[in-house]
Specification:
heterodimer; A: about 350 residues; mainly alpha; B: about 575 residues; Cytochrome Bc1 Complex, Chain D, domain 2; 4 domains; two-stranded antiparallel ribbon; 27 helices; 2 strands; elongated
């Protein structure tokens, strides 16, 4: 084990539970995070186009962006919790090394969150200037993504932690890591593509009351998805090639589950692209959602590949205490039931 | 010592925690209490069939959403970020031990978000019964969030049976869980009424404004009346020594008490003013001003709770430095640096004392001390010490201080840390040879027992006018002077030795230096005084320092006591001969 890696704390139930919750909740965060990225981009673009229909679309999208942020943050909390349980000794360390940037996420996110509310609540009075707020928020989202990419790559590279010995003020970044930029672009480009798809789906909903607006949203969203997905293929190949050879080969036959998932992802990419080309929205959406889930699994293979020589989840000490897990599961069931009931009630009231 | 330290010596990690935590706590308690407030106020509007009250509720919900969901939600995540940066070892422990508590809290956070969004966006569009149910769901979810977080926060203060059995539920339902839950709940509800003023003063119709002002007043003062006994219960539930500390033994906590009292008085008087004297006031500044004393109350409470567990971050389990008691025990006699993963120096040698000392400061002191910052400035705390005294303090005294963790490391490491603190930071000489010299028994006792809290100047103020015998008696009853001091428990002989030293026997130089540091070094260095006195006789020096205004009009008004004059003049004469440093 690398001498710099702190000792992990014990866990109350076997690691598989946390892995399960991590893999369950992280895609949900990605869906909302992607939706925030794509929706903000499409709203800004529509606002800049300036024709009436585009402005109407920007206004409609403005209403959902803050809600998407709220959910992206909420669904970010759960995977961040579970990843800390499994890999906390790596994540805390890398967070400290980039501490100044890491903590800046908080005020930045706050500023962007308020900017999107301001844009929504003052849409008409702000006029054309409003788009500046949106672009400001969008830029912040890109910056936050960059900080996350730095942290997530740095936590996997204990060898790079020695940089701390020369700088303990939390102003380090992991820019010397060759995977950083392709990884970051992979997230941002792919995320925006999925976000485009969200706009298209939302357009289907808007189309119930305003068909012109619905068609515009669907067309724009699908176009964004299509263009960025093609770009994503290039970025994706770059990312794959930038990985250390051992990690790359995991997907090239060295590891059967990893390679199978990679192949399945390739199939889904093709299906999603064809679907988008033929404007088969639901087919595209389902394929893309599946793709996001597979990507989460691939990401996990890469992480384990990186840490394989120095850390194993199986080695985590378990001090059994299962009753809190039961308590959580009961809470989750009750919570989800309440959420479903409230969403149904809201849906019914919006139709009446 | 397992994790790196995010080192910002002039600011301190604690400052960021305090900054994010206090504003978050103030908003998140509103988020908890506001749920009940909103749905109860909607109910009032519906029962009275008062559209203006309903419109007020709708508007207040919008304000509530923007403040609690956005600011409260993000700063809540912010606390998590900052504590993991500042105290990763403790955060890791809390996350791993209470993971399913946090996870359950996340569920209620999700329910809160959905409920609040639905409540706000369907106001007036959903049938009122269902809408109120959504409001009640929000209120319950918000309170359950508090229920969960309360268990974890109070675990840090009173881990209770968990220390023995390590079980989740023992830690969660710890000795202060219930009183803290009631205290925080009532505070949250009270706060909701105060926040209510912020929007009720903006109601256009005077009569509705009056109605809502009185409603807010009754609400706030009613819950305030419940808050006070719950605070008392909370206090009674604290184990020793936390209760002693809260009751005034801790100077840090004593500093917070006037703020809490002023806050309480402010809340009562401003609420009464807005409710009875000016119920139709449209003054938003007045409404906002009501929140300020409440902020002081909350801040003082959180400050006190944090300070009451010092020097631990998890009471009786882990020090603020992130080292557990068990680890500290195992490290006795061992090198600290050699066991610190991210230390850039692993071994102390004579030629790296300062660098090694700086590393020791980062990993052992910085958790609580800044260098020249607002919080617990090490420059101030060590200003009265010299090198030898500092080494002595680290090795023999520090562990006796109630809110300091023990120094961990070898004797050589203590010398290195002292070299950094006294040499690099204070600019005083670091003389390793001085460690070999013998100190008078009285001075040794002084360094072991007194110097950590105050310099000689303060003690001299106390001893002035007392005979040695009276000082001996006084040393045995120090707690009567100040509750935070323990009575000196040495033998009669030791008391006498200490009293003699404190009265000046054999320590004239130290006294004189203290006098000069207290009175002069704020404007000029000791060197300036030495230069002035070097060619003067003792008599001339006495004349000069006896009429400082004549030397320089800027010093008009500075006067020294006769015994101070004598000791300073004597010391300056010795110093000029190169005898004293």
């Amino acid at each position: 084990m690398n001498a710099l890696v702190p000792l992990p704390d014990s866990i109350p139930v076997t690691w598989g539970w946390f892995q399960f919750f991590l893999m369950l909740t992280f895609p949900l965060h990605l869906f909302f995070m992607n939706a925030v990225l794509g929706t903000t981009a499409v709203a800004a673009y529509s606002h800049l186009r300036g024709d009436d229909l585009s402005r109407d679309l920007a206004h409609e999208l403005a209403k959902v962006i803050p809600l998407l942020i709220a959910l992206a943050v909420n669904f970010g909390v759960a995977p961040l919790l579970f990843v800390q349980v499994l890999y906390g000794n790596f994540l805390y360390t890398s967070s400290i090394l980039i501490g100044m940037f890491w903590i800046m996420i908080v005020p930045l996110l706050l500023a962007s969150y308020y900017a999107t509310y301001w844009y929504d609540f003052r849409f008409f009075s702000l006029g054309r200037k409003g788009v500046l707020l949106l672009l400001f928020a969008w830029l912040i989202f890109l910056v936050i993504g960059f900080v996350f990419s730095n942290n997530m790559t740095l936590m996997l590279s204990p060898d790079a932690w020695t940089a701390y010995l020369g700088n303990s003020s939390g102003t380090l970044l992991n820019t010397s890591d060759t995977t950083l930029w392709p990884r970051y672009l992979h997230f941002m480009v792919g995320g925006s593509a999925i976000g485009g798809l969200f706009v298209a789906l939302y357009g289907r909903y808007l189309g119930r009351t305003n068909s012109l607006l619905g068609v515009r949203a669907e067309t724009l969203g699908l176009k964004l998805f299509l263009i960025l997905s093609v770009a994503q293929i290039i970025v994706g190949v770059w990312f794959l090639l930038s990985l250390p050879r051992a990690q790359m080969l995991l997907f090239m036959g060295r590891d059967l589950p990893a390679s199978s998932i990679f192949c399945a992802a390739l199939v889904l990419i093709v299906v999603a692209l064809i679907g988008a080309w033929r404007r088969r929205l639901y087919l595209t959406a389902i394929s893309a959602a599946g793709l996001v889930i597979l990507m989460v699994f691939m990401r996990d293979f890469v992480r384990r590949g990186y840490l394989g020589n120095i850390f194993s989840l199986k080695a985590l000490e378990v001090r059994s205490d299962y009753s809190p897990l039961v308590f959580f599961l009961v809470t989750l069931v009750i919570g989800l039931a309440l959420v479903i009931w409230m969403l149904r009630a809201a849906w019914c009231s919006s139709r009446s | 010592m397992d994790y790196p330290v995010w080192f910002l010596p002039g600011i301190g990690g604690g400052f960021f925690i305090a900054l994010i935590a206090i504003v978050h706590v103030f908003v998140s308690h509103f988020a908890v209490g506001g749920g009940l407030y909103l749905v109860w106020t909607e109910r009032k509007g519906l029962r009275e069939n008062n559209l203006r009250i309903l419109e007020f509720t709708r508007r207040h919900t919008g304000f509530f959403m923007l403040l609690t969901m956005v600011f409260g939600g993000i700063t809540g995540v912010g606390i998590w970020f900052i504590i993991s940066l500042v105290n990763p070892a403790a955060t890791s422990k809390l996350i791993h031990l209470f993971v399913y508590g946090w996870a359950a809290e996340w569920v209620w956070f999700l329910v809160e978000i959905i409920a609040l969004l639905v409540y706000y966006y369907t106001f007036g569009r959903m049938d009122s019964t269902r809408h109120q149910i959504v409001g009640w769901i929000y209120a319950a979810a918000a309170w359950l969030s508090l229920f969960l977080i309360n268990g974890i926060i109070d675990f840090m203060l009173t881990p209770g049976q968990w220390l023995e059995n390590g079980r989740f539920w023992s830690g969660f339902f710890n000795p202060t869980f219930w009183p803290a839950l009631f205290f925080r709940s009532f505070f949250a509800f009270m706060l909701a009424g105060l926040y209510g003023f912020v929007n009720s003063v903006r109601i256009a119709d005077a009569e509705t404004r009056r109605t809502m002002a009185r409603y807010n007043g009754k609400w706030s003062l009613g819950f305030l009346a419940l808050l006070l006994p719950s605070a008392w219960w909370y206090l009674q539930a604290l184990p020793q020594p936390a209760r002693e500390l809260v009751l005034g033994a801790s100077p840090t906590i004593r500093a917070a008490i006037p703020w809490a009292i002023a806050g309480l008085a402010g809340v009562i008087s401003l609420t009464v003013l807005l409710t009875l004297a000016r119920p139709t006031s449209k003054s938003l500044p007045l409404a906002l001003a009501t929140l300020i004393p409440a902020f002081f109350m909350m801040g003082s409470f959180e400050w006190t709770r944090e300070a009451a567990r010092r020097p631990f971050v998890i009471n009786q389990y882990m020090y603020s430095t992130g080292v557990t008691l068990a680890r500290a025990e195992a490290l006795k006699g061992q090198s600290y640096l050699a066991n610190t993963r991210f230390a850039s120096v692993r071994q102390v040698k004579d030629d790296n004392l300062s660098v090694a000392g700086a590393e020791l400061f980062k990993f052992q002191c910085y958790a609580c001390h800044t260098i020249g910052g607002l919080n617990n400035d090490i420059l101030q705390r060590t200003s009265a010490m010299d090198y030898k005294g500092m080494v002595n303090y680290l090795l023999k005294v520090m562990h006796k201080r109630p809110y300091m963790p023990p120094f961990l490391g070898t004797e050589k490491e203590a010398q290195a840390l002292a070299a950094y603190l006294i040499g690099d930071l204070q600019g005083k000489p670091v003389d390793l040879a001085s460690l070999e010299t013998t100190t008078s028994p009285g001075q040794e006792l002084y360094e072991e027992n007194c110097v950590g809290c105050h310099g000689l100047d303060i003690i001299r103020d106390w001893t002035r006018g007392q005979s040695v015998d009276e000082v001996v008696v006084g040393l045995g009853s120090l707690s009567e002077l100040n509750e935070s001091m323990e009575n000196f428990a040495g033998s009669i002989e030791q008391k006498r030795q200490l009293a003699l030293f404190l009265k000046g026997g054999g320590a004239g130089g130290l006294q004189a230096k203290a006098v000069l540091e207290e009175n002069c070094t704020g404007c000029h260095g000791l060197e300036t005084i030495r230069e002035w006195s070097s060619s003067l006789s003792k008599k001339k020096i006495l004349e000069g320092i006896g009429r400082l205004g004549a030397l320089n009009p800027m010093m008009e008004g500075i006067s020294l006591e006769p015994d101070q004059l004598q000791s300073v003049a004597e010391w300056l004469k010795t110093s000029a001969k190169g005898g004293a440093k």
